[in-house]
């Protein structure tokens, strides 16, 4: 990130549990984010488990 004052949101992400009606009790927050080599992001949630995301390389 070269300019934190002008960040650009590229997308949004939510786990399936967020869309249940009513949503389950508790926080739906990330507990750990790890970026491996700058191209892959691993995210852990307290309730939903783990997610692996590929980061864009052409920005």
Number of strands: 3
Mean pLDDT: 75
Classify the secondary structure makeup into a structural class. mainly beta
Strand content: 25-35%
Q: How would you describe the shape?
A: globular
**Portion in helices:** under 10%
* N to C succession of SSEs: EEE
Distance between the termini: 10 Å
List low-pLDDT spans.
none
Number of helices: 0
Rg from Cα: 14 Å
Largest sheet: 3 strands, antiparallel
Strand order of the largest sheet: 1-2-3
Write up this protein.
This protein is an all-beta fold and 59 residues long. The protein has a domain of 41 residues. The protein is built from no helices and three strands. A three-stranded antiparallel beta sheet has the order 1-2-3, with no helix packed on it. Strand 1 and strand 2 form a beta hairpin. It is globular and about 40 Å long. The model has no long low-confidence stretch (mean pLDDT 75).
Give descriptors for this structure.
59 residues; 3-stranded antiparallel β-sheet
Question: What is the topology?
Answer:
Layout (H helix, E strand, L loop, with lengths): L29 E7 L3 E6 L3 E6 L5
Antiparallel strand pairs: 1-2, 2-3
Short description:
The protein has 59 residues and is mostly beta strands. 0% of the residues lie in helices and 32% in strands.
């Amino acid at each position: 990130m070269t300019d934190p004052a002008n960040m650009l949101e590229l997308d949004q992400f939510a786990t399936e549990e967020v869309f249940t009606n009513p949503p389950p009790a508790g926080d739906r927050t990330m507990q750990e984010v790890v970026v491996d080599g700058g191209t892959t992001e691993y995210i852990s949630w307290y309730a939903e488990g783990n997610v692996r995301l590929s980061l864009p390389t052409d920005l």
